[in-house]
Amino acid sequence: MSRPRVRLGELSVGFVQPLAQALRELGHDPAPLLTRYGLNETRLAEAGARLSIPRYMHLGHAAIELCAEPALGLRMGRWSLLSQAGLAGVAAAQAPTLGEAARTLLRFEALYAANYRGHSRYQEDAHGAWLAFYSISPYNAYNRFVVDSLLSGWLAQLTAMVDRPVLAERLEVEFTAPAYADDYQPLCTSPVQFGAEANRLRLSRATLSLNNPQHCPSTYQHLLQLCESELSQRTRVRSVGERITHLLGPLLSGGREPDLEEVALRLQLPPWTLRRKLAEEGTRFRDLLNDTRRDLAETYIRDTELTFGEIAYLLGFASAEAFQRAFKRWTSLTPGEFRRSQRREGQSSVASSAGSGGSSS
């Protein structure tokens, strides 16, 4: 059975705008850096243009090195606009209340960003709601800014919509407090919690109830219909095997390997039915698991700076040694040999691209 290669994820090029604005705020021209990553004006104006998650992380890291501002992600968040989230953001900007805007933005996240690690969630209760961003651990200089920009950005986007400051009641961040920890405090009315179990912020019931002065009921309903239609197109899967591949990403982590029974439960199918359906598609659960692990392993080694131990953890291997044995079995190369060969090819590609005056994203 033919199956698409697993990708770490992608997001709208609209997310580049707050990065560029934050660099300008700090006195740097973002154009040379963006051009280096193939993000010229034409690319940034292209309808539906996407940027891969690894490339975005490398771009952010390069921007932080350029301006020597480790809190760049928080600055990026302050420049975030709902319109940068495309159709989903435009729909959210027409919601009747702040709470409905937040719900809409996260409900249709797949229209502007996708990550195999998971998706953001809006979790409401009688007293307020959590806006939660999924885990992208282990954290390093290449991905902390992503969490910073998302949490700060949600508050900035909602602030602009209701035209009054929106602060979190609570703010929780998975990674340990960085050197710039004090820069988070203006976002929250209580002490920020680092080393938390999740990346999330809490909004009060009073905040969620704030009215949107720009709300137009008919326009909002029309935009919701458009979002639902596009979401249906983007998330349509054609086979049980594809559905399993989509599920495996978030389940692979922490040195544990998901089994067929766990996946069957998530798909609300008896295990024997799942085995039969996979057999009808000419594959087995073990084959899908190995293919997914191999695809992700190659992507992690090629596109990130993660250690092999960290990659082993993310792919559910009990140890780095077990991962390295499996990778050698899949590719006839050790992870180190594969990374070196990919770096050589990448350097050759960059040199060729520089000679021809272009770059791809």
Major sheet summary line:
5 strands, mixed
Tertiary shape: globular
What is the count of helical runs?
17
Computed structural class = alpha+beta
Low-confidence residue ranges? 353-361
Count the domains.
2
Beta fraction: 5-15%
Helix content: 40-55%
Number of strands: 8
Across the major sheet, the strand order is 4-5-8-6-7
What is the typical, i.e. mean, pLDDT?
A: 91
Measured distance between first and last alpha carbons: 29 Å
- Name the helix and strand elements from N-terminus to C-terminus, one letter apiece: EHHHEHHHHEEEHEEEHHHHHHHHH
Radius of gyration: 21 Å
Could you explain how this protein is built, in words?
The structure is a single chain. By secondary structure, the protein is an alpha+beta fold. The protein folds into 2 domains: 72-234, no CATH class; 240-356, Homeodomain-like (Arc Repressor Mutant, subunit A), CATH 1.10.10. It contains 17 helices and 8 strands. Strands 4-5-8-6-7 form a 5-stranded mixed β-sheet. The protein has a 3-stranded antiparallel β-sheet with strand order 2-1-3. The longest helix is centred in the last third of the chain and has 22 residues, at 335-356. The two termini are 29 Å apart.
